[in-house]
Amino acid sequence: MEERQEVGTVVRGRKTPDRAQSAAAGGPLPGPRATPGVIDAGAKLPRTQLLILQAARHRFALDGYTRASLRAIAADAGVDQRMIAHYFGSKQGLFLAAVGLPVHPAEVLREVLAGPRRAARQRIREVLTRVLAEPTIYERMVGVMRAAAGDPAIAPMMRDFLRNEVVAPLTRLLDAPDAALRITLVGSHFLGLVFARFIVAVEPLASAPPADVAALVAPTFERYLFGGVTASAGT
């Protein structure tokens, strides 16, 4: 029987300038070749499956969905390529398994909504600081964004995933006028932040401490969630 490994939540840490510089240069990430994603504490996966997922996250982030090959992923993982089909069925199946979000959106929103409204901005700052400091965010979010933008087969899958698994449940959770618009505004702003900070590594944003970035954008996120969202709201 194959050994199973217990995987806890990855220890959070601050993104270093070396990571931003490496991303801007298009080179490999410093440090370990692949990083486990955020998995519920206590979850257990067969060791081979875990190795494949780690290698796939790294390879999709490095090469994008189209250029990443199953042969390269299998080689990175040190397994027979047939094991990918055994566990995931296809390249698309592997992609969907590998690029789970680095945070649980519903849990994040519940944390923001908990407590008095007057302290919402502080809670948003705390959540954003934690998310931006998450060491898995580069490989997981970059893989998602590159694939969705560059492959016509993946973009519809990502739209379906976001609509059904992110926007719909968060809209119900927020339970406010124009809730779907508010959620998509937060999501689009966050994706733009990820793009500038992690993919093109625009300085000084790329190297700014997560807490500083969170403090700057938290008021805007607060308005998206609780303020006016009409065209005249800011006038």
Automatic annotation (TrEMBL):
Provide the residue span(s) of the region labelled Disordered: 1-34
Key words, A-Z: DNA-binding
Compositionally biased tracts (Low complexity):
23-34
Q: Where is the HTH tetR-type domain?
A: 46-106
Q: Which InterPro entries match?
A: Homeodomain-like_sf (IPR009057), HTH-type_TetR-like_transc_reg (IPR050109), HTH_TetR (IPR001647), Tet_transcr_reg_TetR-rel_C_sf (IPR036271), TetR_C_16 (IPR041678)
List the stretches of this chain annotated as a DNA-binding region: 69-88
Matching PROSITE patterns: HTH_TETR_2 (PS50977)
**Keyword DNA-binding in record:** yes
Q: Which GO molecular-function terms appear in the entry?
A: DNA-binding transcription factor activity; transcription cis-regulatory region binding
Protein name per the record: Transcriptional regulator, TetR family
Source organism per entry reads Acidothermus cellulolyticus (strain ATCC 43068 / DSM 8971 / 11B)
Q: What is the lineage of its organism?
A: Bacteria, Bacillati, Actinomycetota, Actinomycetes, Acidothermales
